[in-house]
Batch of 3 targets.
Target 1
Amino acid sequence: MTKQLTKRDVLKGAGVLGLSAFAVRVAAAPAAEAVTPALIEAAKKEGKVVFYTAMDLQFAERLGKTFEAKFPGIAVRVERSGAERVFTRIDQEYSSKIHTVDVVNTADQAHCIIWKRNGWLAPYLPEEVVKYYDKSYYDPEGLHVTTRILISPIAYNTNLVKKEDAPKSFKDLLDPKWKGKMVKAHPAYSGTIMNATFEIARDLGWDYLEKLAAQNVMQVQSATDTPKRISLGERAVMVDGAGYLVIRYKEAGQPVEIVYPEEGTPLATGPSAVFKAAPNPNAARLFQNWMHSREAQQMIVDSARQYSPHSQTVEKSSVRKLADIKLMKEDPEGVHAQADAVKKRYAEIFKV
Amino acid sequence: MTIAIPATQAPRKFGIDVSKPVLYGFAAVLCVLIVLPLSWLLIYSLTDAAGHVTLGNFYRLFTESSFYDPLVTTFIIATSSAIICCAVAAPMGWLVARTDLPFSGVIRALVTASFVTPPFLGAIAWEVLAAPNSGLLNKIFRNVTGAEQDVHLFNIYSIEGIIFVISCYTFPYVFVLVANSLDRTPGELEDASSILGGGRWYTARRVTIPLVLPALLAGALVAFLQAMTLFGSPAILALPAGFHTMTTKIWSLFQYPPKPELAAAASLPLLVLTIILLRAESMILGRRGYSVVGGKYGAPRLIPLHRLRWVAFIVCLLVLMLPVFLPYAALFNAAFSPVATTFLTFQNATLHNIEFVLFELSAASLALKNTVILGGATATVGTVIAVVIAYVTARHAVAGWRALGFLATAPIAIPGIVLGVGLFLSYTRPPFVLYGTLWILLIAFVTIALPSAYQQLQAAFRTIHPELEDASRILGATRLRSLWQITAPLLRTGVIATWCFIFVGVMRELSAAIILFTSETKVISVLIYDLNESGDLGAIAVIGIGMLIITFSVVIAVNRIPGFGTVRFRT
């Protein structure tokens, strides 16, 4: 007992020392916040929360409706577009001192780097995040928390492509037989694709993308659109896009199949944050808190079919576990540094 | 007898008249509306990101292929669309206005339906119809011919596809101008030609065509400029087709980090081209006068088509399948079938999309409210301004009327998206901080609607001879009173048409809205664009059909306003 106390004291002391040493640079981690009756009461007074997100619309609205049912009297308005457009929008609004966003969920960690630098985010760590999330999934200052983990695999339409003919790797997509038969999303609109493009260019080289462009690839904006295109049969193969939608469509009986490319599957984690200038600060915190609770996180797994950072959630056995997928490494700092260069080079290669 | 009575418009002197300050007031408003954003655009085009004066933006514009390729593409699209629009709309306008075509009212209503359809919605519907692999028409083609999976009849993701879709939703501009002009052209002039021995073709060539020439030219010009500055259809189709037009390129320049200076520079060639075209139009029309509605003509006479009546009717219907029947059938299919491009059957029909839009789509109700408020306000404000300016320029009522006319026409040269940026630059800083409110959208929509509204009303004024007003003035009425009691009733059709035209224009508008909206001021068009980004075709179809119903209800209601709508003048 005495020993333990001593240890704790030492740690405390170290913490204080550490804090004072870095006080100039790093603010203290905020205390973990529970959902208190006072918070709910204050949130109900505000009556609404505005949620900017890059999640697919159906799921985002379902999440909103579930929240509304749990906390009656607080309406959730979902503003959905691609993560890069969400980012542009917030930048445009904040530059004009228009503060309408309460909570944001993007698909590109690099956005949080910029928002944090601008001092736009409010520190807020929900209780369950501190308890059940790995430290790599939230900002040490509590400014943003990873809400969902996305992969951008290859996929194909099973009516148009036989299983044995299906591509197994990114390299396979350069086969002339896929010319004119692929669809791809755009890094200037989608955060998932920004990360995927960055990782592919880093791991396979830009000349891979140049060769891919010569394959006459159909270009769409959002990572949520490519799975729809292959499920409609508009193209046979999707080069990148929301893996979770492929899983959902397959489970709904549509003719699509996922492929985890041999070189590795691009990875993007989607963080959420509460804005400092949020017009509904209490509703924003309540929503942020609930969105990272086990209940909402299990929805991310069960109904969005994405992966959750919450260690108490149960993955479905029907799809490959995240740990079993060979993943490309996510690098928010790298994306942050090179986003403009990636967009520019991409536009030169794909002409759009 | 002359074909057109030369308009004698010697400058006239007026006594003290309240109309002068009113007119100058409008002129001042117009100046602020247009000059302010244009000035900001010009300033931005001549500065670099750091604020230094430079010609570097223009240098890049004309040396980098990523800029001049879209410029060339845009020119090809605009020219082709204008030609197609005239070739289709002019004969159809003549058939409807001057022949005994059966159900000509139905044809007019269908043209209105295609006009009411926002170009981006039409483009999405045509994606459902003519995407090379999943398109319904291509599926039917493969089923009928037994062709391979890869073979397709249509590919909407191509420059031809874009030209086609743009023409579908631009030709109503030409049709309305030609048909209205022919409606107002008295039959006596043609009769006189026939009586004097002119054959049918001679009469057409020497009498009818010269009479509709101003309207046709104006129509071609509007079609060209609409196609050039359109954002909606290219925004849907150009990216999958693998190229940019000027408008989509300009939009891409506002992605983070925004480069407004390049966008401003990219828009100036469009402005210059428009000014050249407008000059060319006035040179072709020259100094001829085209007043045909005086106090002394009867109603136009209809030319009998005999056995060709029904052939002509069927041809018209076939043409109108493209902008109306097929797209709405596709939207209907997408709204009720489980997957947008699966054929609807009684077994697979679902109300899922309707439930989603009505009960789950949380952004819908606000967007709908904003759109209806903006539509009504823009139409009312825009019509009032356009009537006054058209009057001033047609009657040369104040000094500087030429400049006023030019100002009212100038916005047509500015792609909505660039105007959006100009307004964004103008109204995000003191003294007018309007961004984030509906006001900035109102200003944008009024400015965008003004050129067409003004041209429509000016064409209407041009055909009303001032002698009627003069009579009223001689009998002691003030200028405003004669305007209200004589000119306004004569213009009734034109004014209502303009009001509806602007209202519909707001429903169609995407390009400025996409720059100027905030989440609190989102409109339906932006909502549809966002839905399209993620490929939610079912929800788009439901909203699109709802939009059509709302628009038609409003248009019909406006046409039935008692007192305003019941009087029918025969000239």
Target 2
Amino acid sequence: MSVTDTAPVPATRTEAGEPRKPRKPRSGALLSLLAWVVGILFVLPVVWMVLTSFHSEAAAATNPPSVFAPLTLEGYRSFFTGGASPWPPLLNSLTASVISTIIVLLLAIPAAYALSIRPVKKWTDVLFFFLSTKMLPVVAGLLPLYLFAQNTRLLDNIWLLIVFYTSMNLPIAVWMMRSFLSEVPVEMLEAASVDGAGLAKTLRSVIAPVVMPGIAATALICFIFSWNELLFARVLTATVAQTAPVFLTSFVTSQGLFLAQLCAAAFVVSLPVLVAGFAAQDKLVQGLSLGSVK
Amino acid sequence: MVLARLRPALAAAAAFLTMGVTGCAGWGGSDAGAGGAEAIDVLMVNNPQMIDLQKLTAQHFTARTGIPVNFTVLPENDVRDKISQEFSSQAGQYDVASLSNFEIPIYAKSEWIAPLDGYIAADPGFNQQDVLEPMRLSLTAEDGKVYGQPFYGESSFLMYRKDVLEQQGVQMPANPTWQQVADIAARVDDKVPGMNGICLRGQPGWGQVFAPLTTVVNTFGGTWFTADWQAQVNAPEFKRAVQFYVDLVRAHGEAGAAQAGFTECLNNTVQGNVAMWYDATSAAGSLEAADSPVKGKMGYVAAPVEKTKSSGWLYAWSWGIQQASDKKDNAWKFISWASSAEYEQLVGRELGWSRVPAGKRASTYTNQEYLAEASAFAEPTRAAISSADPRNPGVQPRPAIGIQFVDIPEFTDLGTQVSQGVSSAIAGQMSVDEALDRGQELADDVAERYRSRL
């Protein structure tokens, strides 16, 4: 195999200083092997979780782990029919994530437009200001927010979480969208204006197609962050607005076995994110390779 | 093109948004909570007995009373955080919470929970006199009012392998002293390959190593504080007790003792790695479960003593009603059902007698069906709970209620910090004297605050 091949890796530039075309067989194979190893390392815990979710509680708790234990749907059965119904928390999470993501996009895209294509005065200061709101540790804001929610009678209300998730994700979304929008070539905008396209037409026909992958990537990131948020949800919700991550923690017990059921629950809760990720896969690859990280 | 492909998705998102806005009453926040104006909200720890309760509530409580119950279930540490946050701010989101006999007197003093005497008097069917006296006592605050009702309770006792002791020709006394237990541990240690003499908790935590260890301190004549709030953590009796405990577990205890808590000791005992175990009476249910390898091989005797007549601890997961709740009547109806003798029978019939939330009512221990299932440990458990005296657990008067803890809010921090030194001593990294001298300083800080209020 090429991994064991000790031949020197070819220089990446010729003597004339021009970039050499990458040689597929050697460095290419090495890189793809590395990519596979890293990929497998990342996927392994998830695969392990899925496998454990199909084991019985007793088999899930053994040490050393019993990989080939018989498979069962018991974990899923008790998740859906065991104690409390999982649907209200899942719907709460979906509501909070989808609505906050939509609001974030509605606010972040115009803001990013004003920071890149038609930059406002001192736009770098503005950008830094957006970022500075993320510098306060979330937990430092927890107590004031709790007291605020209690006094405004908004505890255990999903709309409160929507507002918080929107404001938590907005700075990130503005930064991401700004870097995507600055990818739009100035020449394209000039050409559009020469051809007599107005703002709306330019936005719709010139800018949108270029940045749509970026919007998809931003939306997915905001969705994932809101979907997985635990700290605020745990403190600010009770029985009505409880979200899926809080519901997940309820499977942990100090008496008795819970691993298989917890894995089943964790897998079900991860599904919406996985589905969204797969659905937007091609956009994401374009989107995430756009911008400053190209 | 891209836009065209995304259009269905956008349409779906818009539809969802509308649905979310208009349909929020179903799962979104509203003041009345889920289930209408009669519904109550219950916050409780995720223990198997609570999960059974959750399963039985709709069919057997809501159907009869018309009161829907919304449960929030969290792991033990999380539930303590959430309860103290909720009750200290009197947010009123929960009507009922599962509180232990550690929290109830403290919460009662802060007026975070409501007294139950009126409800008890008006509900003769609940039969308060059937609740074991130490339980009633430990859920009564300094003002003499009852603030909690036990759901299930436990004391501590000594569990041992009858077969192993018999093989070695050792007789276990019915009321052993700690010295006798240490001698037996030495005699049976390593006689069966891989089996240590005794399992004792060593894991740091006020509720881990200091649960059994404080009972040892009590019976050796020690105490955390005297009645006039003098810290006694490095007093000779306290030191002798901790030295004895550390020596015993280091010489004849389980492997990895400094990290062993309840769960580790349960596993050690089930897997035959130890011949004896001093811990909660509730462990016996797991040891005698149908799939347990040590079922039928275990004997149970009273908690070992030294200077006191008994030394078992007392712990009860109980129900308390939040003072800020505006549905206290419904909350009491729920508690009255969940803590009743009828509920125990319901669990016995529906789920099996081994799953009954026991350890709180005298009538449980005269129920023939329960005794048939739990004959091995029912009487030792009842005896252990009945002989516990939370007001007077040692040889001297105490400033606060509690056997394996001192019932002050500072104890969780104090106990946990001192336990870290004890755990290090068990691991051999620190001497007992050093650990307790440090503990004395911490305890004195706490004591000083109370002295200034005397």
Target 3
Amino acid sequence: MASEPEVPANHDENRRTFLKQSSLLTALAFVPGTVVEAAAGKLDERVAEAFEQVPLSLKVNGVRHKLKVEPRTTLLDLLRENLNLTGTKKGCDYGQCGACTVHVDGQRVNSCLSFAVMHDGKEITTIEGLADGDKLHPMQEAFVKHDGFQCGYCTPGQIMSAVACVREGHAGSEGEIREYMSGNICRCGAYTNIVAAIQEVKDGGKKV
Amino acid sequence: MKPLSKQIGTGMNRVDGRLKVTGAATYSAEYELPGITYAVLVGSTIAKGRLASIDTKDAERAPGVLAVITHLNAPKAPGTKPEGKDPSQPQTVGSALQVLVDDKIRFNDQPIAVVVADTLERARFAAGLVKAQYAKEAHQTNLEANRPNAFLPTQAKKNPKSPVADYQRGQADAYKTGALKLEAEYVIPTEVHHPMELQAITAHWEAPDRLTLYDKTQGTMATRRDFAKQWGLPEENVKVIATFVGGAFGNALHSWPHESAAIIAAKVVNRPVKLMLTREQMFTMVGYRPHTWQKIGMSATPDGKITAITHEAVGQTSTYEEFTESTLGQTRMMYEAPNLTTRYRLVALDIGSPIWMRGPGEATGAFALESAMDEMAHLLNLDPLEFRLRNYTEQDPERNRPWSTKFLKECYKAGADRIGWSKRQLKPGALREGDWLIGYGMGVGTFGAHRGSSKANAQLLPNGTVLLQSAVTDIGPGTGTAMTQIAADTLGLEPGKIRFEWGNSTFAQAPTQGGSAIVNSVGPAVQEACLALKDKLRELAATGNSAFAAARKEDVAFADGYLTLNGNPTARANYVDLVRQAGGTAVAVDSKPGPDGQKYSMYSFSVHFAEVRVHQLTGEVRVSKLVSCADAGTIINEKTAGNQMKGGAVGGIGMALMEHALIDDRFGRYVTKDLADYHVPVHADAPAVEVFFVNQPDPHVNALGTKGIGEIATIGVAPAIANAVFNATGKRVRELPITPDKLI
């Protein structure tokens, strides 16, 4: 699965390719016998390659990627396994823990709950893209200062969610923060410190 | 102990904080190795029996599949022992259960095949194509139904002094004849650790006899030992790396089936294999806090002196291992009781093995003991804090030895003040705000201040920095940060000049991170290594400088990168110059516990105070305030230590109010399969937890004066909440979790 950063996407072309491949898929669906035969004859690999790869163009942390991915690949697995952006964590695969939280076009989403191909043309920000070079984002600084983590595994998701929580205007009080951060589980139980970090960023009035 | 320092006791930021907030910390499934492959486990769908047949043809033909491995084609590890380990061995020694070696099914979801493919998606798809047929046998998965078959653990049979052997002082079961008595049964369900990081391993055979594991483990040395033994390799041929561990809470204290499977898979495909469990598999094969039944009988005099306690526990284990924990330890030493009986038994079920979960057995036992204390105080019409003070132990009644230190009364006072204990009413249900009933409760915790042998390596590098290395892991408490502070203070250097490296089995030997023992054990090793470095520096200074050569050892001072001499302002030697001249300097130390462990009983202590609000119509329980106070000896880092206390308290909220892993006994399979079914506390469930440390050094555990925090942070929290619920509602819930159905 090749990644070609900084290559501008040609969506029309992608779409045409996808349609062609979709036709192949449809054709195969109508003649299941062909697939079975192909599989039995060890042709499975080539057949699979023909219809499993879908073109996808994404901007991740400001870098454009033109990719070919299997439609069943989640955004989370694409980030972790194909783009080597392992800062986004896998904790459940069911959207229940929040460890995989990223921003898609500025909105916080559980990246495990959507397929990568659903985000064609969109801009993704992960934890690796939050700091400004060596300068940490205010939320990252506040998490360090308030010790808003222990093992660190839920932390990228907490921070991405916390930034969105402030931007959405849902960090008005301790109670509101707790409610709007409840999709991000911290099993180490650093909640007291996470809330303190978010409050400080909110009260500090810095641009997040 | 003289006050050490500038760093110890401060709230220095974590040394790895930046890595953790930028996503740059690398966990065990995140190592980029060339030719990496993906493994997915196929689990059994019965709880007991034999695999009659397994059809892997379709899976083998699926795109991208490199191997489908079952017991029929798996390479046999020379040290394979399918039935697990010898129950008389310590529990962290020897691997639990080698999988893919035979057709026997011992629990539901036991791995029966591992599929390896070039992508995760392809491996997962192909795993779904493996078909198995079983010869089913009747299984047993219910603790209550099997309680009549409970047995004394093998280690207790072999050693009557074992902590799980029957214990007696005074008369047996004397509570039965007491003037004022209570008898009650308490139950905790199975609870699952569920760290946010799923259990994961990347296994790589770098040569046919050389194995590297990037593994989620609390002990790099223990994992190395287990798999070296399993594969008949010299220990140094197995390298285990666990730099970052995404939480564990005990579930990485043991080697598990998925690790064995990944190592076999890597052998077969001869490429690195990455295997990450699903959340569902986290219930079935990497341990849990066992479902435990307990009974307490207690008697007291009318003026509130306990005369007798009998505490019995029956815990759950698997059919292939005997898991035990110290469920009854706190009862034997916490309160004066001239007559005391404890009995611990096990029931073996067709479920995967349990493993210690934070606070382990002590947290289970404390739920019963501290609930019973509250019940007795209520019977006596006494304030529960006053009742505990009347039965306070000034020395250890179990071993008849003095405490090394005990500042629990200070904790009681600090906690009572902070929670507003004076607002508590003796009569339950007396406080309310609208539809919310308000109650206050307390629970006490204790855990042994354990210290194990630990080594440490230290080098003073020519650039003036110090490199320390230890095989110890850091599962979240901030071990690396605490060790950096200890080294900085001992050497008189800024923390920025210290680099502490951890989580690698090739570094100096250290104990497994668990049992609140790491700062107690590795801390003194780091301190001693730094003291040895200072000796080296003194020697180096003496060789080139007559003033230092003539000086007495105690007159040489170390600060800010220089050696100076008391009373001789001109004598001054730069560390860096000395090291450059010597071409670097390195020391290795082996730090062992002293003899005081035989003279004193060493424990950390905690007390937790909870304020709860219970909705009188819906039965919803909200923990509105939680204060945790600890006598944990010297606090190395108030920020990370405080965080650990707060986190342990949140774990206690889960235990008290929501955590319950439920098995459908008809199928012997968990019905709670994910975090939507198995609830753990989220932000909205946790109040801001207030923490108080006595922060008095214990001179007997080690020279730093530490006693340990991890366990006492959780032990006693669940009963504090249960007692507060009683105080709010008058309803005594003796079976956790306290869900609304039990209150309405």
